[in-house]
């Protein structure tokens, strides 16, 4: 594991849960981040799924210094460069093309490419990424699939995301090759829309108390 990957793995391990944030309105960014941090959730993945994503990430970095902000849904080298330009602490992709893996390997940004199969994991490993995002986790065979990958790839570490929530997060975190889990259940869209920040903080508090670091 490279030093960069080791530090990234340690960061995710300490975080336990990485909330996947799809921010529709720029004005929600800072109160949402503050609500998550207040609940003990500091490592945040802001996805590039909305037009305001980059501005939202910048607003969080500027106004919520306790938050560790990364960029998710990185699909190509341009997205990676945008994440680097704003000073994101890490990058995460749902999958990986050879071009993206090459760009990420040449970049200084801690990065977790998305994989769902053995072949995709082999590509990631070949580019020096032994920490990957297993996505979509439940839909790709769940914990059984992850255990199957552990045999031929004993050094690979994963942040499973997709179909993970309050009911099954602990089971995923109990797997020895899992460093953290990702999910959007800590910040339900309805709560964000209605500004139920106290509800989000309470949910984070509950999750952090019940989930132990992997």
UniProtKB/TrEMBL annotation:
It is an enzyme of class 4 (lyase). The lineage of its organism: Bacteria, Pseudomonadati, Pseudomonadota, Alphaproteobacteria, Hyphomicrobiales. It comes from the Bacteria. InterPro entries: Aldlse_KDPG_KHG, Aldolase_TIM, KDPG/KHG_AS_1. Its EC number is 4.1.2.14. It catalyses: 2-dehydro-3-deoxy-6-phospho-D-gluconate = D-glyceraldehyde 3-phosphate + pyruvate. It holds the Pfam family Aldolase. It comes from Bradyrhizobium sediminis. Belongs to the KHG/KDPG aldolase family. This is 2-dehydro-3-deoxy-phosphogluconate aldolase. The gene is eda. One of its GO terms (molecular function) is 2-dehydro-3-deoxy-phosphogluconate aldolase activity.
């Amino acid at each position: 594991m490279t030093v960069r990957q080791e530090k990234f793995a340690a960061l995710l391990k300490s975080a336990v849960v990485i909330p996947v944030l799809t921010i529709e309105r720029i004005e929600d960014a800072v109160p949402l981040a503050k609500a998550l941090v207040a609940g003990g959730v500091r490592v945040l993945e802001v996805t590039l799924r909305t037009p305001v994503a980059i501005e939202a990430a910048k607003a969080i970095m500027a106004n919520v210094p306790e938050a560790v902000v990364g960029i998710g849904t990185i699909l190509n080298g341009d997205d990676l460069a945008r994440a680097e330009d704003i000073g994101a602490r890490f990058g995460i992709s749902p999958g990986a093309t050879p071009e993206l893996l090459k760009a990420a390997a040449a970049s200084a940004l801690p990065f977790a490419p998305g994989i769902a199969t053995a072949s995709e994991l082999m590509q990631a490993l070949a580019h020096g990424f032994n920490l990957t995002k297993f996505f979509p986790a439940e839909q790709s065979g769940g914990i059984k699939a992850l255990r199957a990958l552990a045999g031929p790839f004993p050094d690979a570490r994963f942040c499973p995301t997709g179909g993970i929530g309050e009911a099954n997060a602990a089971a995923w975190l109990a797997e020895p090759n899992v460093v953290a889990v990702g999910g959007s259940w800590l910040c339900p869209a309805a709560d964000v829309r209605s500004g139920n920040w106290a509800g989000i903080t309470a949910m984070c508090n509950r999750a952090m108390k019940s989930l132990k670091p992997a």
